[in-house]
Known about the structure:
By secondary structure, the chain is an alpha+beta fold. The chain folds into four domains: 6-224, Heat Shock Protein 90 (2-Layer Sandwich); 232-365, Ribosomal Protein S5, domain 2; 401-492, Rossmann fold (3-Layer(aba) Sandwich); 496-620, Four Helix Bundle (Hemerythrin (Met), subunit A), CATH 1.20.120. Helix content is 32%, strand content 19%. It has 19 helices and 23 strands. Helix 15 crosses helix 18. The chain is elongated and about 120 Å long. The protein starts with 5 loop residues before the first strand and ends with a helix. The mean pLDDT is 86.
Amino acid sequence: MTDTPHDTQSGVEKHAFSAEVGRLLDLVVHALYSEREIFLRELVANAADALDKRRFEALTTPSEALPDGASIRIAPDKEKRLLTISDVGAGMSHDELAQNLGTIARSGTRAFGEKLSAAKPEDRPSLIGQFGVGFYAAFMVADHVDVISRKAGAPDAFQWSSDGKGSFEISPASREAGGTDIVLHMKEDAAEFLDAWRLKSIIRKWADHITWPIKLQDGEETSDANEGTALWRKSKSDITEEQYTEFYRHVAHQFDAPYTTMHWSAEGATEFTALLFIPGARPFDFMESSRESKVNLHVKRMFITDEAGLLPAWLRFVKGVVDTEDLPLNVSREMLQATPVLTRIRKAVTKRVLNEIRQRATKPEDKEGFKNFWENFGPVLKEGIWEDAEYRQEIASLSLFRSTYSDDATTLDDYVARMKDGQAHIYFLTGDNVESLAHSAQLEGFRARGIEVLLLSDQVDGFWPERLGSYKEKTLRAISQTHGDLDKFAAPTPEGEAASLEKLLPALKAALEGRVKDVKSTNRLVDSAVVITSEGGPDMMMQRLMRQSGQAMPAILPILEINPHHALIRNLAARADRDESVEDFAAVLLDMARVNEGEPLGDASAFIRKLTTMLVSASA
């Protein structure tokens, strides 16, 4: 409450701010808002509330009806360094000025809202203000503020004046009709907010879609400063495809047409309206941009933030707007409270978007469209398999993968349907690109036995298979890991007699001591002489990704597997049987296997020297 008023001159009352205001004004001005331009959003929100109040009250008091063409008017005056925000709303009486502007968190909006419980839902105005502190944001840019207000239906007007330093004055004033004028005496360093173009840009950012028209005066000219129509609040039947596309391009800052449009209203415990789009093309800098979702959050048509995390990072390609009446905000409106309401909105929006993607994925007539969507955003969507346990299986079910089965992408369901009798695993191979993977020596034994292998070449593919673990009770297994699975399946008879490796294996192990974990014979190769595999721990692609990201990666020695039917191995086995050295050959074999896997050579110069020497000897 304020102190007892006293006259400083005839008709002028001077009041001290309540203790709460005195302590918090400095916080509001210097710490509550991160951007000074927020002051205009707050004052426009208050004006919109005042207009809504008057429209509501006119339902029972027709004499207080809004005048025709009611709007919010903003008039900058550079010469006098004044900025005026005017409305023809409900206005305030003498006592309301003292109570609403003299006591923190005693918002007229909030008090008025308590009167609405008996009103019919369709008659209730949509009020923006909640905490009664937004008005004080004016002092971020003004060193003095005058509020001239006349309550609708009342004969007298009053002026509230303050420099925000501990007290305010209320005095009789003159105003032709009901409503409020807020006059800001701008600080010298706030001159930018007297430029019409700057004011218009702020309005377009924060208040473009509120119901009431905002008129901006620029010299002798007055123009519309906001669009005034929230497209998402319209019925879908009243919106054309062209209007959807135009709005998509506005909110997404792109020039293509959306792949899909989602427009719906949620009712029940949490109510909100959403208009979301999946782009038809991938932005050129998409993979380098922030991983945060940038869906715009509006409260009662007023833009609040695009950093509310309304969608998880793995759906960050979705653009659009979510508008709610229910969301509690903290006093600054910039840092959202972690409320159950926001949690429910996030969950509902995520499910709706994922359901839309699933529906598009299962439409035969949209096969090419979904393929294009997957090429654009599939690598991002797969991040959800890695990081989101709730949606992991669902994302996996609609994901597309290249495989050795055909050139067309496949789903995991189709892969499982094609599995061989007795096959317990979904096999995959990871690498830097599909073309290289398709020629990998790792595939030879699987191709020979007709076993399909997924070819995974996106960076995230190095991570998610471990998290997914299994699909339809079939475990995922990297074929670059050592295992004996191929022994279960019949294979064509290999060409060439198998070499005896009794002396060669120990000789190769000795030559490669400290560089490999083991050297063993394998049945996974057909045309190649050697391949490297790993045993437990991250596979080779995961190791590369961890090293590239700067993470500490302990040395994990590979296993060198050799093909006993290959002519080169037979020749080396004969050499070992004659007790001749195979040391140089061992190093070249390992380097050959590393190159085939896309691994960097430890010493490329040494590899070239040894290979050159061998070629010279062989060509002599």
